[in-house]
Amino acid sequence: xTTARIIVLFLLAAVAEIGGAWLIWQxxxxxxxxxxxxxxxxxxxxxxxxxxxxxxxxxxxxxxxxGGVFVAGSLAWGIVVDGFKPTxxxxxxxxxxxxxxxxxxxxxxxxxxxx
Length: 115
What we know:
The chain contains five helices and no strands. It is mostly helical. Keywords: Cell membrane, Membrane, Transmembrane, Transmembrane helix. It is found in: Cell membrane.
């Protein structure tokens, strides 16, 4: 259950953070109304709470691992929402970021690794 919880929380955090940033972008860069910026602020605040629900108690590790999810999630958001056409290098970079995130999250802790 812990692995599923970690993954679900990372996905929810990505939707909240990327969606919040996108809403602010729409308000500021696309002149689509400041009410979108306010919704974006709410979504970004929700992201902070969602990230705090991760089972790992180390802020730095959680946010470092989430960085990989953010990279891949941002590209996915661009593809789905904005019609972005990624390059091969975008996909490779995303994969590297996700592998790095997985190493941080799922590698044995110092307590169990014998170091």
